[in-house]
Design brief:
single chain; alpha/beta; Rossmann fold; 8 helices; 10 strands
Length: 253
């Protein structure tokens, strides 16, 4: 397995950075990984999953959304719509690099964005989410107390996971523009929702609702796992579930 830093232009025109994990030999397919809200491509769960996928014969591409990690742009200008655009551009980058078939896997809000982006990606063969909400409005509780300031000043510094971020009004306005469940119902490819039974940030029922809405949906539960799958064994179980799912999808394996 080898890794390579890849840069590409995101949906809003900023230069985004990602890491491509190349499998030995001809890959079974390519997997695009979308990180959770305000996290980044280097979150331990994302990196462990990417490495496991590459070891299993898949190319895996993890990247930072606009305004986060090693990517350029301002986080305060981002929204769910901009995340969907970034995902679309990342998928196009994989195609331009000669990879396919393609799957998209998203964690938390990145999972919701992945479901929303699916209809834009004509080469997509599978979609999977990890601890994803069934509505993007689920994140409102993270910054309810700051909403008056965001509305009056256009932005405000909020704390997510103990880290400060500048959130813009555009993010709030955009939350009402998307239905993740409707997008799941329109999927034409196999869908997997992975949930942690100890997740108190996005309750496991969200994944069950997404899978029930998708025409070809299924659920895998990781017993005792929290929202970030913080324990190594839980992250490894996520990787195992994803690999088993992808190996079962026509066109992969």
């Amino acid at each position: 397995m080898t890794t390579e830093t890849i840069t590409f232009v995101g949906g809003a025109g900023a230069e985004l950075e990602g890491v491509l994990h190349r499998a030995q030999g001809t890959p079974k397919g390519a997997v695009l990984l979308a990180h959770c809200f305000s996290c980044g491509k280097d979150l331990h769960t994302t990196t462990r999953v990417a490495k496991a996928l590459a070891e299993a014969g898949y190319a895996a591409f993890r990247f930072d959304f606009t305004g986060l990690g090693d990517s350029e742009g301002r986080f305060e200008t981002t929204s769910v719509s901009s995340n969907v655009s970034d995902l679309t551009r990342a998928a196009v980058t994989l195609i331009e690099l000669g990879f396919g078939p393609c799957a998209i896997v998203g964690h938390s809000l990145g999972g919701a964005a992945s479901v929303l982006a699916a209809h834009r990606l004509k080469t997509l063969d599978a979609v999977a989410t990890i601890a994803a909400p069934s509505t993007v409005g689920h994140v409102r509780h993270l910054f309810t107390q700051h909403e008056p300031t965001i509305r009056s000043e256009g932005k405000a510094e909020v704390s997510v996971g103990g880290a400060p971020f500048c959130l813009g009004e555009v993010f709030l306005d955009d939350l009402d523009n998307h239905s993740v469940l409707d997008a799941a119902a329109e999927l034409t490819v196999p869908f997997l929702a992975i949930v942690g039974t100890a997740d108190t940030v996005v309750e496991p029922d969200n994944g069950h609702r997404l899978a029930a809405a998708a025409p070809e949906g299924r659920v895998v539960q990781i017993d005792g796992a929290d929202h970030l799958f913080s324990r190594r064994e839980h992250a490894d179980q996520v990787a195992t579930a994803l690999i088993s799912f992808l190996d079962s999808v026509k066109g992969f394996g």
